[in-house]
User: What shape does this take?
Amino acid sequence: MSTQIDRPRRSALYLPATNAKALAKARTLPADVVILDLEDAVAPDHKEAARAAALAAVAEGGFGRRELVIRANGLDTPWGADDLAAIAQSGADAVLVPKVSSPADIDACQIALSAAPASLQLWAMVETCACLPQLDAIAAKARSTRLSLFVMGTNDLAKEMRAKLTPERTPFLPFLSLAVAAARAHGVAILDGVCNEFRDIDLFRAEAEQGLLYGFDGKSLIHPNQIDPCNAVFSPSEDELAWARAVIAGFALPENLGKGAIQVEGKMAELLHLEQAQRLVAVAEQIAAG
Assistant: This one.
């Protein structure tokens, strides 16, 4: 099925599904993705209430162009199976599954979602040590399942690894690049993990720019204050768009039809640059359309 990989997903805001005030505010925020959380942000005694609240929020609508996602509890928890069964018929755009550790976990989710509409996407958290050596095999499941997007879970990775989550994220840099490479190899979109410092916008921006450098499509967020700087970082710049449009125009010239490489503004541009340029302009147009 389609991964919708060219859809803008600059900012993906987590919200506890039990927080009615936050859900109401989310309908007005400029986040590209809203993730209604049934997992980490919800205490065990409130899991069923959170599920009901998330389903009611999706049914009520009002989120506009925002992609609406529900993060379920893991299948190995007392709530996971019921979460997936409910989300399958919820009308959400995607279900985000935590603690995915193997291709078999994707298969189990695929079976659990068998009654869902074909439009429901499966998103997977990359947050366990066990998944890291299997990222390519997990991403390859996109060819035969609903899997369409990875979300980094650096907080959980830090816990499992007993590593320190510093502003530079040094212990996790190999895994960030590995996850991006696995995702790109199989047409899976990918979002960077959260930055816990929601009051320090300069630090957040630096981490977002690091994620952009590594090739992420966007970043998951824990606070509305992070949305605007995140959108700014992950939006194409005017210079990038000008170059992209010049590449597209250059390849469209009659004398360049069928060529694999041309000169654009004194630089060499190949067909791979044309593909990148077309994607960049398409994303920018969707952002501009709001």
User: Anything to note?
Assistant: The first helix runs from residue 20 to 26.
